Amino acid sequence: MSNIFKRKKIQDTFERRVRANDREYNEKFQYANNCIMTSKYNIVTFLPVNLFEQFQEVANTYFLFLLILQLIPQISSLSWFTTIVPLVLVLSITAVKDATDDYFRHKSDNQVNNRQSQVLIGGILQKEKWLNVRVGDIIKLENNQFVAADLLLLSSSEPHGLCYIETAELDGETNMKVRQSLSVTSDLGDPNNLAQFDGEVVCEPPNNKLDRFCGTLYWKDCKYPLSNQNMLLRGCVLRNTESCYGLVIFAGPDTKLMQNSGRTKFKRTSIDRLMNTLVLWIFGFLVCMGVILAIGNAVWEKEVGALFQSFLPWDPPVDNFLFSAFLSFWSYVIILNTVVPISLYVSVEVIRLGHSYFINWDRRMFCSRSNTAAEARTTTLNEELGQVEYIFSDKTGTLTQNIMTFNKCSINGHAYGDVIDILGTQQKRVQPLDFSAWNPLADRGFCFYDQSLLEAVMVGEPAVHEFFRVLSLCHTVMSEEKSEGELVYKAQSPDEGALVTAARNFGFVFHSRTPGTVTTQELGKAVTYTLLAILDFNNIRKRMSVIVRNPEGRIRLYCKGADTVLFERLHPCSHEVMNITSDHLNEYASDGLRTLAVAYRDLSEEQWEEWSEHFRGADKATDCRDDRLAAAYEVIEQDMMLLGATAIEDKLQEGVPETIAILSLANIKVWVLTGDKQETAVNIGYSCKMLRDDMTEIFIVNGHTVQSVREELRKARERMLESSRTRDGGKEVEAQGLGGACAFGNGCGGGGAANRMPDESKCPPPQAPPPSLLESISGEFALIISGHSLAHALEADMEREFLETACACRAVICCRVTPLQKALVVELVKRHKKAVTLAIGDGANDVSMIKTAHIGVGISGQEGIQAVLSSDYSFSQFRFLQRLLLVHGRWSYLRMCRFLCYFFYKNFAFTMVHFWFGFFCGFSAQTVYDQYFITLYNIVYTSLPVLAMGIFDQDVPEQRSLEYPKLYEPGQLNLLFNKREFFICIAQGIYTSVVLFFIPYGVLSYATQSNGVPLADYQTFAVTTATALVIVVSVQIALDTGYWTAINHFFIWGSLGLYFTILFAMHSSILFSIFPKQFHFLGSAHNTLGQPVVWLTIALATVICIAPVLAFRFLKLDLKPQLSDTVRYTQLVLQKKRKPGGRVGRGVGGSGVASGSALGRLGRGGSRRSGYAFAHQEGFGELITSGKNMRLSSQALANFASRHSSSWIDTLRRKKHANSPGMQNTPPTGDDSAASSQAPPLSTSSSVNSRQDTAAGEAGQQCNEAVLTHSPDDIALSMLRCADRETGGCSTGTVQEAPFVWKGSGARICGASSPGPPPIAEETSSGD
């Protein structure tokens, strides 16, 4: 029997067989049921699995081992409870946290699995939970219901078996998609007929390809091919369809949605991984110390201890000095284990929990519109938020609102949309036009502000009327009249909806359509046009046309599409209008608007009849039908007359351009991974200022074969180096480029080889140039790559070339990518760049990417909650990411690093005293301190101050963190806690232990009390050393604390006072009388601390421990300060200057600025972008004209990214990349200067722009500048800002410094809608 099941499992790996209405047959194949499970544990597995995961932490295993040792009486000198209580506490806290997280996963799974579905069982529709649905069942879906499993569409309530679905949960697209059943099953709409259906489907096995399905239906001795157009995938929502029936093909984990989700991964931070390594090192160090002391014990017992055998014999198990040394070794391992106390991990969890609450409580990350607060859904990744280098973002719903608005237009050479007053200056848009006063069918949600366009419509300008007539006729929108005068448009994409709505408000109302007619109301008059043909849109044509006959019998072709395509097909007499319109298009595109051109052509009856015959022949062709139709379209779409152009704004979420700009200044690279088509993604890239006209070049990789993709990537790298050589005068880059020239060619020959296709059978694949060479080139580049090209680029032999090319670019946009490809791109960067990655998205198609990245962020938006449930952090707006990283992330990293440095320091200072004491106690494993002090040191005396620092500490205020994004870079480079910093802390701790042992030992050896009694006794020494230790570490944490609160004061000085209180209590006669065997230090505290010499000894030890630290920090601050030091110092200077006379005049935006309008827009430089995003696939023209009643619906900035000049951080960053594993260590070349003003040149292979744009430099010269310089340190901090902040002009921020301060170059924001945080040097006087 097992062989049979094995054979059937193997069969499912090659094909799947499903028979309708036959559960018994289908169950033989052991297909998965429809129950999904994203949780990690259940009641049975939680304890063992969770403990297994926790004991993967090296420290937990280490403490378990110590606990076992302490249970052995012969070697334990400490009580077992000193280890088991903290260990159980840590395991319990972590287990509760993990259980809570998994509970919410179970809750989400149960919510989905218990949804109701109508299943056809025995000819009767019965309600079943989703988890009870099986492969082969027939399910009935109703409008607005989620699809329960991957279904083969059998029939629909719509004519011809059509149904309409929304796939936002799958691919993020909110436009409608059409699915159609086979004609042979479309009439099986009755449950009785469906109950008799016994067809068998043979198809491909489960896979993650959302856009492909291959199978065959066998029924009634016939077979019918199946494609993706016949499938309804789990996660889709049925829209605008009353009902439909489907056959379950894939269920539960086999569905394409779950196949793309990826598994839940256990995430650890880089600090966690480093701590595991350090614990191993410390354990090795501990073993070394134990061996040294054990050897010392053996020597002492042999040479000296033998003399004491007569009155101090060995304990019974010990019979020789070697066995004594063996036991001594394990005793010292127990005593010295406090170099890594278990309280470290308790404290880390508490600090992370506190940081998570700060994120949850942050009112500046609360969205009042959606009533959604930010949520830290995990507590283990907070500090890694301060180390992010790469952000991978979805587009739809994450960067954009997916709301299109008709913004501007150009008609017959006249531009409309900007409100201009009599003096010619642009006015603020205050009050939108009121269309309802003269147009009862106007959409009240439509806003337009230019009165002149409405006046042109009302006075009857022919060109304006014809322009809006095109918009009302040339589309595939469906209308639905819910009530009298209330029209609802169902558009395949928001773009088309926006254009038709604009025409509707200006009096040209699209009312209804049939397969052969389109009815409109033109200025209140009903007009019906005969629809002769629809020349449908596709990604190659980039245009759409309709041919209509008006009531007078005149035939006209109306066309709208990408201007680059349409302008080539205009009549020569339109060239004058074309030139003017082209200028308008450049202006619109520079504002990030989605543009397209509008044209028409009159046709005679003879022309129509002749072309119609040609068209019908192409439409009926059985071979090369698409090519024949395209050729027919090409014939008729010629000699058109240009009417004008439209400009649509794809509304970004609030603050997206500013956020990307700030993140770019923090050296965080943003990659957009979207399922949308290329034109849409590029438009959004310009809108959010990821792509800019002043970029050096923008490369497009769109190859369909492995070889073409490799060639395009190679050309991109060559252009980067060529541009860098040109800019840098051919200095170092040229010299190093010669050495790597072979890497850009195909390796087959000389200079001409680059122009030939390489022979892969003879030549190895071209290699990427050295990464340090690519990353150090000057100039700013962007890379745009399509999904089919990305599939080749992610192959093993090419992924490194793609990665190095992409990482050399400032912006990367991947279009048409599947959810799995998103995860593969993230995994590629994680694997090779050794950088912290963050993925952010809002739909189910982003889940795999979110789970793969080091940090996953979910946007609680319009596409469900799948992304939020799989994320580590969630909020409602992309702009909150800036605060999450630059404030909370940076502070969390800073606090955790300071906490760890201090923790290791104080514990080495505490523990190493035992080591030195071993040389003076005969290596007998005697402890220096009272065992209660050892127990309470990390739990009571020093725990609260370090917790306060780890939770509340700051280096600069949150406002400065946002103003100076460069403050974020130390976290990316891991500067604040690494192996070097660890050894510095250890060295300081060892030095402190030496002082704390030998100073009291030296002084007390010869000191006496006032009555002449010597102080050289063990208890006095123990109390003196312990007191000096507590005072020294308290002073040290006071020096380490950068931000003082009342809590810090209370914890530090309160812990010191608590130490003395407990010390005197434990050494009192009261406790001794109750527990005489437990408290041996009777009266030691009173006697010891009553001696002046003891306090002098403590003071001397404290000074010797702290003085070198103070001296080092003052020298470092003076000779090599960090940026945070400079920011704090400058802030202090500004505060001092404000005190005498109050607030000084504003240095920016004051009287020195001539006019806000002086900062004009940057010229487009000819990089025009089509807004023709009406469809993500072939349009619906054929369905409309075929006579099928089709209904559908849809739901509907400035970049600072200039390169920074060299600084100590940049130098260290280059070293980091140069030393990455598997990468060549090539000296960096080139100057990371600001981006060139040269616009991206146009090339058919790799770029989209072709002209020079010098407006950037001109605009930069018009910015007002304010500089603060403070002598003698020559600290110069300047911020450049535009004068007119309200108009969203050009805002520039620069931070400069003296030779010892961080260096940064100017950075510019152009077209921003909001000014961002104010610069630090804003409030300065001219005398500064």
From TrEMBL:
* Locations listed in the record: Membrane
| Parts forming coiled coils | none
Tell me its family: Belongs to the cation transport ATPase (P-type) (TC 3.A.3) family. Type IV subfamily.
Bias type Low complexity, positions:
1233-1247
Supply the EC number(s). Answer: 7.6.2.1
* Entry binding sites for Mg(2+): D394, T396, D842, D846
The way this protein sits in the membrane is described as:
Multi-pass membrane protein
Q: Which SUPFAM superfamilies match?
A: Calcium ATPase, transduction domain A, Calcium ATPase, transmembrane domain M, HAD-like, Metal cation-transporting ATPase, ATP-binding domain N
Q: What is this protein called?
A: Phospholipid-transporting ATPase
Q: Which organism is it from?
A: Culter alburnus
What InterPro entries is this protein classified in?
ATPase_P-typ_cyto_dom_N, ATPase_P-typ_P_site, ATPase_P-typ_TM_dom_sf, ATPase_P-typ_transduc_dom_A_sf, HAD-like_sf, HAD_sf, P-type_ATPase_IV, P-type_ATPase_N
What biological-process GO terms show up in the record? Golgi organization; phospholipid translocation
**What cofactors are annotated for this protein?**
Mg(2+)
Transmembrane region(s): 78-96, 278-300, 320-346, 899-920, 932-952, 982-1001, 1021-1039, 1051-1074, 1094-1115
Please provide, alphabetically and separated by semicolons, the GO molecular function terms listed in this UniProt record. Answer: ATP binding; ATP hydrolysis activity; magnesium ion binding; phosphatidylcholine flippase activity
One GO CC term of this entry? trans-Golgi network
